[in-house]
Amino acid sequence: MSANLGRFLLTLAALGGLSACSKPPAAPTVGASANGPAATALDATKPSPMGPAAAQSAAKAPVAPPEVTLPAGRTLRVRTTTALSTKTAKPGQRFEAWLSEPVVVNGTTVLPKGARVEGVVAESDPGGRIKGRAVLGLRLTAVESQGRMLPLQTSVYTRVARGTKSRDAMKIGGGAGVGAAIGAIAAGGAGAGFGALAGAGAGTGVVLATHGAPAVIASESLISFQLRTAVSVPL
To answer: Which tens digit of pLDDT belongs to each residue from 93-146?
Structure first.
C-alpha cells in the first residue's frame, strides 16, 4: 500500500507541474511598460505641459495682417481740395488732397480711390522782379489706409508761374506814352521827348516795384507724385 500511495502522489505532482506550465501569461500591469498600449492611452490623457492658461494664450496670439509693398517709383495721382498760391503759401504749410484713382497691385486694390492724402508746401518762391518767375512746389507726406495715416516720401511737384514779359513791356511803353503827352502839353514838341523819357522811367519803376504773376495750383487740380521710398500697406 505504501508503494502505491507513493506512486499516486508522484503522479499528482507531475500533473500539477503540467497544469502550471499550460496556464496563459498574466496580463501586464497597467502602466508597467512605457511603450505599451496602456501607457500610450495614459499619456494621451495627460494635461499639456504648457498648462491651460499658456495654451489659451498661444491660441489667442494675434496674427500679423498681410501687407503689400509699393515700390519706389510707383505713381500716386491726387486731386487737391483747396487752391494754393505763392502769394499766400509758405514752405512747410500743410495741404490735403485725395487719390483720384485706386492703387492696384496684382488685381488687389491696395489704396482705394478717394483715400485722404496729406502733403506740405516744399517751396514757395514769389520770384525775382522782371526776369524771375514764381515757383510753387508740393510733396506728399501721408496717405490714409485702414483708418491710419501711412508716412510717405515722394517727389516734388513744381508749378512755375507764366511769363510776364509782354505785360511788363506794355507797362513800360504805356508809361512812356503818357509821359510824352504830358511833356508835349507842358513844353511843346521838345517837351514831348523829355516827357517820353520820364514816362518810360516811371513805367520801369512800376515793374521793378512789383513781382511777376504768382504760381497757382487751383482746387481740384490733378497732380502726380512718385514714391521715393517703398511703402508697406496692410490689406
So the answer is: 999 999 999 999 999 999 999 999 999 999 999 986 545 899 999 999 999 999
8-state DSSP, 161: P
E strand or H helix that includes residue 3: helix 2-21
3-class secondary structure for 16-78?
Answer: HHHHHHCCCCCCCCCCCCCCCHHHHHHHHHCCCCCHHHHHHHHHCCCCCCCEEEECCCCEEEE
Q: What residues does 119 pair with on adjacent strands?
A: 95, 140
Rounded Cα distance, 178 and 199, in Å: 6
| Alpha-carbon Rg for the chain in angstroms | 48
222 pLDDT band (50/70/90 cuts)?
very high
Check if the beta carbon of residue 119 is closer than 8 Å to that of residue 97. Answer: yes
On the question of pLDDT at 16 being above 50, the answer is: yes
Please name every residue paired with 136 in a beta bridge, in sequence order, or none if there are none. 124, 159
Share of the chain above pLDDT 70, in %: 50
Report which of 193, 123, 176, 120 is spatially closest to residue 152, judged by C-alpha positions: 120
0.85 exceeded by pTM: no
| Separation of alpha carbons 66 and 56, rounded Å | 24
Cell numbers linked to 135: 515757383
> Around Cβ 58, how many Cβ atoms within 10 Å?
10
What is the per-residue pLDDT for 14? Answer: 61
Return the C-alpha cell found at 26: 498574466
